[in-house]
Amino acid sequence: MLFERITSEGLAHYSYLIGDGQEATVIDPRRDVEVYLEVAYRRGMRIACAVETHRHEDFVSGSVELAARTGAAIVRSGDLAYYGRPVQEGESLSVGALRLQALHTPGHTPGHMSYLLHDAQGAPWALFSGDALLADEVGRVDLFGAGRTEELAAQLYDSLFYRIRPLGDSLLLCPAHGAGSPCGAAIADRPWTTIGLERQLNPRLQYTRRTEFVGAMTQPLEYPPYFRTMDRLNKDGPPVLGQLPAPRPLTPREVAVQADRAQVLDTRMVTGFAAAHIPGALSIWEAGVPGFAGWFLSYERPILLVVEGDDVSGAVRHLIRLGLDRIEGYLSGGMLSWHKAGLESAHTDTVTVQELCRRLDHGEPVWILDVRSASELLEEGRIPGAHHIHVTQLPGRLGEVPRDVPVYIFCGSGLRSMIAASLLERAGWQRVNVVLGGFAGWRSARFPIETAEAVPVPVAAKAAGPADLR
């Protein structure tokens, strides 16, 4: 028997490869499907089916890609109309001697299906719950607008309490997302769990009345703008890649010529970007690309990459999982080649927490911008006098940031601060400083922090997933 979970870092997406004999099935596949093909090949198995628990909104599904590469059938939920064959409630799908039984578990989406895995003897032992039930959380119910939130929350309550919980405490629970996903507000960092553990530990399963559960679920989360594109691609079927794209290496002069019409994405770490970067480049460190590229990159304009060294495969994987396919090339030789070509570069000022504290003590003009999420402010406290704009909201709130005084940017560590700095600089701000080490450095140096009780809670609901990345 084959049972393997594949994690897509950054998206906190889990897919599963199960097989028996010579046949395998992938549940909720991602778009770069080579990993499934390689594992199946090593085990002498053929991928015969791709199964989707629901129409995903945070990544491009890989079912169409798998079907094109292997001839696999696509079995999907009943969520609206899209590619593949809709599965019916109670229907069984064979995987060798194993059996997947479809269970209608609406709420996160109306047609959401979970799949109960039975072993060769017919005993149930695992539930692929999609986004219905997660570790310490359940799937968000606001994806179809405020007008349907209460309806979907009520459906989810019934799915959890009348369909999933009665399956038994001993069942292994295999959700489609883990900690950091925007598909739930507070998913725990518990890689493996069971229905029994969730019954004991999951706050959402402690309600005894549907009305209480519905009331707790109606607070909306941030809705990333790229979700609309994911919805369209996963409805119509994304373009088939055939293989992982290989962007063309470009000379510095070629990048300079194209930079005006393209968007330059620099995936180097904070200090490298701060020292020198292509003017107008957007800074998102490579591991942060899955969580933030969809917020700040346009699907209409080509992308040029700047990375450490010449290996762009990691950044490319992250981008194509979000449907950002227009990757036209990368700067060959990195910023060293840019400098050797005699081209102009920009830099971003950085300060330590000690230096910022000295400037505050000396009464220098300082405007502190804290781009952490609302949940971080509540849990960790804030810097006295700081102004709070979450990094994902910054493009729409630039008018709140002054241009006539130095701006000092905080996040948890400095990573998101550099995203914010690059956004401001691209919009014409010149007196921007990133505070190295961010709030963690400030707290470690024992500088003043206002307690959680003193933190004003923003009107907008707390952000999920990438909003909580440090």
Q: Main sheet, how many strands, which sense, barrel?
A: 6 strands, mixed
CATH superfamily of the largest domain: Ribonuclease Z/Hydroxyacylglutathione hydrolase-like
Count the beta strands: 24
Oligomer: single chain
User: What's the mean pLDDT score?
Assistant: 93
Q: How far do the termini sit from each other?
A: 38 Å
Query: Which geometry do the CA atoms define?
Result: globular
Low-confidence stretches: 454-470
The total tally of domains equals 3
Can you list the strand order of the major beta sheet?
1-2-3-4-5-6
Structural class, please?
Answer: alpha/beta
The proportion of residues forming helix, as a percent range, comes to 25-40%
CATH class of the largest domain: Alpha Beta
CATH architecture of the largest domain: 4-Layer Sandwich
Radius of gyration: 24 Å
Q: Please tally the helical runs, counting DSSP H or I stretches of 4 or more residues.
A: 15
At the fold tier of CATH, the topology name of the largest domain is: Metallo-beta-lactamase, Chain A
- The share of residues in extended strands comes to 15-25%
Overview of this structure, please?
The chain has 470 residues and is an alpha/beta fold. It has three domains: 2-236, Ribonuclease Z/Hydroxyacylglutathione hydrolase-like (Metallo-beta-lactamase, Chain A), CATH 3.60.15; 249-340, 3-Layer(aba) Sandwich (Oxidized Rhodanese, domain 1), CATH 3.40.250.10; 349-468, Rhodanese-like domain (Oxidized Rhodanese, domain 1, 3-Layer(aba) Sandwich), CATH 3.40.250. The protein is 28% helix and 21% strand. The chain contains 15 helices and 24 strands. It has a six-stranded mixed beta sheet with strand order 1-2-3-4-5-6. A six-stranded mixed beta sheet has the order 7-8-9-10-13-14. A five-stranded parallel beta sheet has the order 15-19-18-16-17. Helix 3 crosses helix 5 (210-217). The radius of gyration is 24 Å and the shape is globular. The two termini are 38 Å apart.
